[in-house]
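Predict the structure of Exodeoxyribonuclease III.
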Amino acid sequence: MRIATYNVNGINGRLPVLLRWLEESRPDIVCLQELKAPQDRFPADAIAAMGYAALWHGQKSWNGVALLSRIGSIHETQRGLPDDPDPGQSRYLEAAIAGLIVGCLYLPNGNPRPGPKFDYKRAWFARLEAHAAARRAAGVPMVLAGDFNVMPGDLDVYRPDRWREDALFAPEIRAAYAALCAQGWTDSVRHLHPEARIYTFWDYFRNAFARDAGLRIDHILLSPDLAPCLREAGVDRAVRGWEKSSDHAPVWISLADG
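Done. Here is the predicted structure for Exodeoxyribonuclease III.
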């Protein structure tokens, strides 16, 4: 089974890129972030024509997450995190697909730090940790995937010293990510590539992609019962170089049958 996550940075404006990638890569389950489209503007017909069922949680101009599946129906289990004080922000969507629970998330950016946006990011992360812990306690096989807006370690950022005070690399946020993983979740890419510099995002400015000035902020976490099934993990880096592409590249994993 091939599972992928991709921050599309505007699903309608970049639909040709998304459809091309789906056709070439053919992931079985896909988590999408930053749809930037209201609920009634999701391109369901175009995605269905590629052979994918879809579930989405839209929002006008900002945020938005979706789940796609070509290996079975999608049964929603959670829309938004429990007790979210700002449910108007479409940042979390979860469903049962092919025997798994798949949570798709778009964690807040948090800049500028300090300030209310950083406080909101920390609070949202805390709710994610609580929800993830509840799912772990239930013992269900689960994938948590999406744009976490955190670089967990120095290997995940092209010039660490320049990012120490940024909300994506702040000690509090790295600690929150470490605490989440300490529940028993496996960071798929880092688990299989422990010493590699691997990036998933390159800014549009300052020729970042050509210079490989990137960040690893898109992650796929596996619950303990799924981790032994992990066989491959990588980034479809070439997609970032396509015309009118997102500033993120798709991240994917392959799981053997459990």
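The chain has one domain: 2-255.
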